[in-house]
Specification:
Number of strands: 25
Shape: elongated
Distance between the termini: 32 Å
Number of helices: 28
Radius of gyration: 34 Å
Largest sheet: 13 strands, mixed
């Protein structure tokens, strides 16, 4: 019996090849998009979960109510050991200093020399808290020796090839000898704790490790079953108890490691929600297509239903037959979708920067989930036509008294309105996101990022910087050179500031950057009041240049000449610089203090910025390279464009715009399939009417307009539905940016026109086909 039903199902699918092809195309496209989104979401949600104890790992964060927008993601060195000693619920702790963030790290072995970006200094508890698979070495003792390091397999192969790595000695920055004591497998891509080389944090020295210098990420491992809410209440005052003289009300908070990626890490939970909703609606649109196409072909199936009922088939049997057809088509579409996903996945990975896999992932839960989605989609897509087609009365069908098609028409048109409303919302979203991205790319940042290159600072370059700068500026290709502690748009260093007239109980935090006398000149930042630093004035090393935000924060009516106590310097404000964007455009310009004292340069400088003359950039880079190799011969020469780095900081927004764009086109494509189905339905229902109109002299153009104007009306209604929703969503999206483009009605009209134009083109094909029917054939239509 099952074989008979299968034959009937396949016969009906092959009998209507066009219908079957369109349905499979729509469902396969919807499935493929949904699978890719689910894989992406699954990867985002899986971050950090491969660690055995991830549920009991917490990151130590610090907040200050004096500055609500400030979160200390790099707490003091001294904090984690105090928490571990004071609270028995904390089994292990580790501090992580990303050494390559603070200085250039170059490792060499024989004739191989590399600058390493992922260098960690960690406590002994690091490999007991985090689960990394060791290929060689003992995780319990691998960093007991002060000169021992652990490497990933890729890093070990880079230096030693196929040689056994344990015991080999690497030279670090041409000064230290570090022995390999362990090798781990390469860290999974879904991990935010990532390194290539890890060594003992004791290399920093006891003084640093016992200090309250805010430079180390810290994690703790809590005992299973710990009341973390209660523990959070206990630990929040630890900083104030141990360092009351800092004058800040700092609150400690233990943040779940499993939630780090999407809430305070490199991910964003908002995108997970957005893409989850997009996947749902794309599947919904694909289901709607099946409903519309199935009902559009009901006249060809009506006699079959009538005959089967006459021969004893009951409604239940007919419903199951149509549901079987729907499920069969859904499964066929699903397998096509799997093939599509496997084909496009390499490109998708390159596009999103991930390493996703589907069939070869061994992730049974995802496969089962998507298989259940296929079943649900088949049932959802087939349930309406199943009940609709099985409701025909045999007498009416066989006597050709089939109802006019008004029954259920409102529902079908509502579905099409919903389809195009979703598409229009996505089009508006795409345009808005692209406009915001272009706005951010073209926004005047308050400094000139063109024709500026930068190189990482290192010990040798820092020690000989004045000679390096002097030699470069003698060349006509170089306009100016300066050192700095931060990239201009990513200034994160923060400190309390005191000034004459400040209230004793008042605490003010401000950002600061350590530069030199050519900082403002190199970036072409204007002085709006007072003067810039001068190399001829030795006392300027104790002075400050601030921005207007800092002056307003300190309530200085006449800021130039005001005395400040900041970063152990006592000097005066000599100038007010123009308010350049010292944070990404999601944030407002922060109050900023610029200092140039040589002592702070030695500790803070991380970059050297060089403004080159317009022209042949390769020749200018060659000049810089020659000087760099002369003054820092132990370090490889690496350089980047400043403008490209600024642009790359917004790559996530560009990627988001790309994703929304592709899914917009996909949604429109699937919606047009549904519209094609409804156009087929209407044309089929009005065949005799068309024949009569043509007999009475109506032209082909008149028939096309007659059949198209109804669909035009429904697409216009889609705009009415979509516009308020799109406005609300885009307003929420843009609220995340302190500096943003405006929502323009013009782009709403453009989006509506695009949807209307595509709909008319889609409908016209069916309208033209109906209009060209011979009147005699139309009047004999059965």
């Amino acid at each position: 019996m099952l074989l008979v039903h299968l034959k009937i199902t396949l016969r009906n699918l092959f009998r209507n090849k066009g219908f079957t092809f369109i349905n499979i195309s729509g469902l396969a496209a919807g499935f493929a998009a949904a699978i890719l989104i689910i894989l992406w979401i699954s990867d985002e949600l899986s971050f950090n979960t491969f660690h055995e104890n991830y549920d009991d790992i917490y990151r130590v964060t610090v907040k200050s109510p004096e500055w609500p927008g400030y979160t200390g993601v790099v707490p003091p060195f001294a904090l984690a050991p105090i928490l571990h000693d004071k609270y028995p619920e904390i089994k292990e702790f580790t501090r992580i200093q990303r050494r390559s963030t603070y200085e250039t790290c170059v490792f060499s072995y024989e004739d191989k020399r590399y600058r390493e970006e992922g260098v960690y200094l960690v406590d002994k508890g690091f490999f007991r808290i985090f689960t990394f698979e060791f290929v060689h070495g003992d995780p319990e003792t691998c960093i007991d020796d002060l000169n021992s390091i652990v490497m990933t397999e890729s890093a070990a192969k880079k230096y030693f090839g196929d040689k056994y790595p344990v015991g080999k000695v690497l030279h670090f920055n041409g000064e230290y000898e570090m022995k390999v004591s362990g090798v781990i497998k390469d860290i999974p891509a879904n991990s935010e704790v990532r390194f290539d080389i890890a060594g003992p944090i004791e290399l920093l020295g006891t003084e640093k490790l016992n200090s309250w210098s805010w430079e180390s990420y810290s994690y703790i491992l809590a005992a299973p079953g710990t009341d973390i809410v209660g523990l959070n209440e206990q630990v929040k005052e630890v900083i104030n108890e141990n360092q009351p003289e800092n004058g800040l009300d700092m609150k400690v908070n233990l943040f779940p490691f499993a939630d780090q990626h999407l809430h305070i890490g490199t991910g964003d939970i908002t995108y997970v929600y957005i893409f989850g909703i997009v996947a749902f609606f794309i599947l919904l649109v694909a289901c709607i297509n099946y409903m519309n196409l199935s009902t559009a072909k009901y006249a060809k199936r009506s006699r079959e239903v009538g005959v089967r009922k006459v021969f004893g088939a009951n409604r239940k049997e007919l419903i199951f037959q149509f549901l079987r057809e729907s499920l069969t088509l859904s499964f066929i579409s699903f397998f096509f979708a799997v093939a599509i996903v496997e084909f496009v996945l390499p490109w998708f990975n390159e596009w999103t920067g991930k390493s996703l896999s589907f069939l070869g992932s061994g992730n049974i839960s995802i496969l089962l989930f998507i298989f259940l989605v296929a079943i649900l989609t088949g049932l959802t897509a087939g349930i309406y036509p199943a009940f609709f087609l099985s409701s025909f009365r045999p007498a009416h069908v066989l006597k050709e008294k089939l109802f006019s098609g008004k029954s259920g028409a409102g529902f079908r048109r509502t579905l099409v309105v919903g389809q195009f409303a979703v598409s229009i919302i996505l089009i508006i979203s795409t345009i808005t996101v692209l406009r915001q991205f272009n706005f951010m790319m073209n926004k005047d940042l308050g400094f000139d990022k063109e024709n500026v290159i930068y190189v990482p600072m290192n010990d040798q370059l820092r020690d000989s910087f004045e000679s390096f700068r002097y030699e470069l500026t003698k060349d006509s290709h170089i306009e100016s050179v300066m050192g700095a502690s931060s990239f201009p748009t990513l200034i994160g260093n923060t400190n309390a500031v005191n000034w004459e007239g400040k209230e004793d109980d008042e605490t003010v935090l401000t950002k600061f950057v350590v530069g030199d006398a050519d900082y403002l000149r190199t970036l072409k930042i204007n002085i709006v009041e007072g003067r810039d630093f001068s190399r001829e004035r030795k006392n300027d090393e104790m002075n400050f240049v601030i921005n207007r935000k800092a002056a307003d924060l300190m309530k200085l009516e006449n800021p130039v000449g005001a005395q400040l106590d900041f970063m152990h310097l006592n000097g005066q404000v000599i100038g007010i610089m123009d308010g350049f964007h010292n944070r990404p455009l999601e944030s407002e310009i922060n109050p900023l203090v610029l200092i140039i004292h040589p002592h702070h340069r030695e500790y803070f400088w991380k970059y050297c910025f060089i403004r080159v003359a317009p022209g042949d950039i390769n020749e200018s880079v060659g000049v810089v390279k020659n000087s760099f190799n002369k003054f820092a011969p132990e370090y490889p020469f690496e350089w980047k464009y400043m403008d490209e780095t600024v642009q790359s900081s917004y790559s996530y927004l560009n990627q988001f715009a790309d994703i929304i764009t592709y899914f917009s086109f996909l949604s429109i494509f699937i919606s047009c399939l549904g519209l094609f189905g409804l156009a087929s339905f209407i044309a089929e229902q009005r065949t005799r009417e068309i024949g009569i109109r043509k007999t009475l002299g109506s032209p082909v153009s008149g028939i096309i307009i007659l059949l198209s104007k109804e669909f035009t009306r429904w697409v216009l209604i889609s705009n009415i539905v979509a516009w308020p929703v799109a406005w609300y969503l885009m307003d929420l999206f843009l609220n995340d940016f302190a500096y943003k483009t405006e929502i323009s009605l013009l782009y709403f009209f453009i989006s509506g026109f695009i949807a209307l134009f595509i709909a008319i083109i889609t409908v016209s094909s069916q309208s033209l086909k109906a209009a060209l029917i011979n009147p005699s054939d139309a009047l004999r239509y059965e």
